[in-house]
Specification:
11 helices, single chain, Serine Threonine Protein Phosphatase 5, Tetratricopeptide repeat, mainly alpha
Length: 315
């Protein structure tokens, strides 16, 4: 009888154990399905991070696991339930998405601001800028044919009346210009620029304008092209033609912002706008200069930058 009761008890225990296993199978399957869906979401988030931050690393977003920061989700302890682990990982995904969204909005606002400021610099009265007018006082045929004029800053073109014929220079001026030697070093482009510099240095501004324009148009890829465009703008500015100067300063800055004299041209652009009493564009140029070239604003061009800032009042 005792053996019979013992057999019955063993059968009942086995039946209970089998029932427990049967009940746990659906729960296990559900947990595995949730885990697979969560891994898929995490994979897609990592793909978004790689697209938004190429070469993504700790410089751009917080790693999934960072034990150095308090409160950062870490590997789930063995005692944590599967549901708690899923909630922690979902919180981490939501936090990363919020960071990505905030950074993307900030970048979009910055780009929009830069575009607006650049557009304001480009809006120059093209009707008042006429780089095609012949330079008065320049000896005819002294420096070869007249190069192609600089491109306009706007797509809007204006028909202008025929220019007044150039006045023949005085014989004394012709002789003084002829006395300035043109170098011959073997670097033809460099020699053209140096000759223009010598004319500008001697204050023969119309002749310097013609010579430097010849260099800029004939050697657009020369190592000194940034110097040439900037000096051409200065030849117009020093010659009392700030509007023509503004054309070349802006062109030099836009052509290569890393050029050797791009920063100088942006600062001289502000100076040309001050001469034209266009304080709004002068302030824009000064602000752009200080943000784009902080080393120049605090170093080589510091005195000129501070002098221009003191000449006008900017908001």
């Amino acid at each position: 009888m005792a053996r019979h009761h013992l057999t019955i008890r063993r059968f009942a225990m086995g039946l209970a154990l089998a029932s427990t296993c049967i009940v746990s199978v659906p729960a296990l399957a559900q947990a595995q399905d949730q885990e697979a869906r969560l891994r898929k979401i995490e994979g897609e988030l990592r793909a978004v991070q790689r697209a938004v931050f190429p070469g993504g690393d700790g410089r751009f977003f917080t790693p999934e696991v960072d034990a150095s920061r308090p409160g950062t989700p870490t590997t789930t302890p063995p005692t944590t339930s599967a549901v708690s682990d899923i909630l922690v990982r979902l919180d981490s995904i939501e936090a990363q998405l919020a960071r990505i969204t905030a950074i993307e909005e900030e970048n979009a606002n910055t780009i929009a601001d830069l575009k607006a400021r650049l557009a304001a610099l480009e809006v120059v009265d093209t009707d008042a800028i006429n780089p095609q007018v012949p330079v008065a006082g320049a000896p005819a045929g002294s420096y070869g044919p007249t190069p192609t004029p600089a491109p306009a800053l706007s797509s809007t073109t204006t028909t202008r009346p025929a220019a007044t014929p150039a006045v023949a220079p005085a014989p004394e001026r012709v002789a003084a210009v002829a006395a300035i030697a043109k170098p011959d070093t073997g670097d033809v482009g460099g020699d053209e620029y140096t000759y223009g510099y010598r004319l500008w240095e001697a204050k023969f501004y119309p002749e310097a304008q013609q010579q430097l324009r010849k260099f800029v148009d004939a050697y657009p890829r020369h190592a000194q092209i940034s110097f040439g465009r900037n000096l051409l703008g200065r030849a117009f500015l020093d010659g009392g033609q700030p509007r023509e100067a503004a054309t070349w300063f802006l062109q030099n800055y836009q052509a290569d912002k890393n050029g050797a004299r791009a920063g100088d041209s942006l600062l001289y652009l502000a100076e040309a706008m001050i001469a034209l009493k266009d304080n709004n564009r002068a302030c824009i140029a000064l602000a752009e200069f200080s943000e784009t070239y902080p080393a120049l604003a605090a170093g080589r061009l510091k005195s000129q930058y501070e002098r221009n800032r003191a000449a006008i009042t900017c908001n």
